[in-house]
Amino acid sequence: MKLENEYLCVEISEEGAELTRIYDKQKETDVLWEGNPVYWKRHSPVLFPNVGKTYHNTVRIQGTQYPTSQHGFARDNTFTCTVCKKDRAEFLLHSNEETMEVYPFDFELYISYTLTEKTVEVKWKVRNPSDETIYFTIGGHPAFRFAEQEGKKDDYCLHFPGKESLQYILIDPNSGTANVDETFEMELQDAKYPLSEQLFENDALIFDDGQIEEVWICRKDGTPYVGMKCEGFPNFGIWSVKDAPFVCLEPWAGRCDNRGFEGDISEKPGINKLEGMGTFTKTYQIVVA
Q1: Which residues lie closer than 8 Å to 261 by C-beta, 6 or more apart?
Q2: Where does the chain have alpha helices with state H?
Q3: Using CA atoms, how far apart are residues 143 and 34, in angstroms rounded to an integer?
Q4: What is the CA radius of gyration of the chain?
Q5: Using an 8 Å Cβ cutoff, are 120 and 44 in contact?
Q6: pLDDT digits (tens, 9 = 90+) for 160-198
C-alpha cells in the first residue's frame, strides 16, 4: 500500500499493518529504517496487546497464566486493508482462535495512516465488541535512519522542545522488564541531548509520566531532520542497536511489566482498561523537516 503527495512517499505492509517506508522526495532521502537484518529486521512495528516483555514471559488473566511474546502478536499477523486512498489507509486485525489461545479477549484493532504535506499521522483504534472488560498496552516502534549513508549517532542529537531535563528508567537485563528501583536524570542543554553509542548500552530508555510530547532528531548543529508529536502518551521509549545507523522513537500507552510483577493483568501499573463495547484511540504524528 502506497500513500504519496508532492513531498513524501509512504509505504505500508499488510503484515503487521507496518509502516515500511517514508521517502523524502525533495531531499531524495529515506527517513524510515529500511529493515536491514544485520541490525534490525523491522521498520515500525505496532506493539499489541503488550508493549515490551511481561515478567517471566507470562501474563495472568482471571487466574490463568498465558504465554506472551515480546511486543505482542499484532506485528506478526496479517491485517485486512479497510480503507485505500491516495492519502489515507486503514487496516484491521480482530481476535480469532489463534489470538484467543494467548490473549482471551475479543478485540478489533484498527491502524490508520494519513498523509498531509510532510506529516504522517498514525492512529490506533481498539474496539471492544464484547460485554467483557479487556486489558492491553499498545505502542509504536518507528526507527528513523540517519540521512547520510555513513551517518553515526555522534552526528545527531535529540531535541525536546521546552524541556530542561527528563527522568528515565532502564531495562533489567535478566528479565527484560523495567527496573523501577533506579531513576536516571537526562540533563538537557538548550533542550537538546547528544546521541551516542553509550546511551543505549543498557537497552532502551523508558520515560514515564507523560514527559515526552514532542521530540526531534536533529543534526549536531541543531538542524531538525525528523520529529514526532505524541501528545497524551503516558510512556515513551528511545532505543537503538550497537553501531546501527538509526534510532527508534516509541510512543507507548502502557509499557513492559515492572520487574517482579506477577499480579493479574487488571492490576498492572499503566494498563489500559476498555469496558464492554467501548473504543480506545491514540494518535501521533511523524513530521519530516
Answers
A1: 54, 55, 177, 268, 269
A2: 97-100
A3: 9
A4: 18
A5: no
A6: 999 999 999 999 999 999 999 999 999 999 999 999 999
What is the grid cell recorded at 69?
A: 511474546
**Which residue segments constitute the domains of the chain, with CATH numbers given?**
2-288 (2.70.98.10)
Which residue is associated with the grid cell 498492572? 268
Give yes or no for a contact between 6 and 16, defined as CB atoms under 8 angstroms apart: no
CA angle 42, 20, 200 (to 5 degrees): 40
pLDDT at 232 over 90: yes
State the CB neighbour count (10 A cutoff) for residue 209.
11
Cell numbers found for residue 17: 499493518
Asked whether the bond before 173 is cis by omega within 30 degrees of 0, the reply is no
Nine-digit cell string for 138: 499498545
Give me the numbers of helices (H) and strands (E) for the chain, helices first please: 1, 25
Q: Please name every residue paired with 187 in a beta bridge, in sequence order, or none if there are none.
A: 165
Cell numbers describing residue 29: 532521502
Whether the CB-CB separation of 46 and 138 falls below 8 Å is answered with yes
Q: Say which DSSP state 13 is in.
A: E
Q: What percent of the chain has pLDDT over 70?
A: 100
